[in-house]
Amino acid sequence: MAEEAALRTVARNVRVARLRAGLSLEELGRRAQVSKGALVGLEKAQGNPNLATLVRLADTLGIPVSALLEGPAEERVRVVDSASVEPLWSGEHGGRALLMLTTPGPAPTEVWRWRLEPGEEYPSHPHQAGVVETLSVTSGRMVLVVDGVEHAVGAGETAAFAGDAPHAYRGAGEETCDLVMTVHLPPAPDSGGAAP
User: Fold this and answer.
1) How many C-beta atoms lie closer than 10 Å to residue 95's C-beta?
2) Quick one: which of 4, 8, 88, 103 has the fewest CB in 10 Å?
3) Among 5, 24, 2, which residue's Cα sits nearest to residue 15?
4) What is the sign, positive or negative, of the torsion defined by CA atoms of 3, 49, 41, 188?
5) Rg for the chain (alpha carbons), in Å?
6) How many CA atoms lie within 13 A of 135 on its CB side?
7) What DSSP string runs through 67-110?
8) What is the pTM of this model?
9) In Å, how far are 89, 155, 159 from 51, measured between CA atoms?
10) Residue pLDDT, tens place only, 49-88
């Protein structure tokens, strides 16, 4: 089953990244605010980690979320069909967030496709310092909330902000909001310029 294979990939990638960072289960759990029991289960490919947990783990390990989800990239050109990507967030009214891919290199960029139905909201915890997000609305309208301040963003508009502040995305108006988000990650502090 595809979900079981995906969970095994996440389990392997979390363990490899944790060991590479020289962290015990206890220390990773403390830093990422995830229980040791949840981490033990995750590394055994058990459970169902949500997007917030994966983001906290990735931020703590200094890697993109997709590094926890993907096998090794072997192709020079990758084409990803959104129909082949499982949502990492699903809203109550049909909204969803798809992590399409992450660019390689010392400062990777995650490319997301989001759909927000009117009134649906996804609150995000602050990311590590240096993360910059951009949102380009392709249809509909949304409200971007950063540090408690609301910013209306409509079709054809793009917003950029520092992701280390509390933020949320909310569908607005009467129609579905579709947007493309990029999350620009800083180089890992101990990477010495090498790809994570």
Assistant:
1) 23
2) 4
3) 24
4) positive
5) 17
6) 30
7) HHH------SS----GGGS--SEE-TTS-EEEEEEE--SSS-EE
8) 0.66
9) 6, 26, 22
10) 888 888 889 888 888 887 888 765 555 677 888 888 889 8
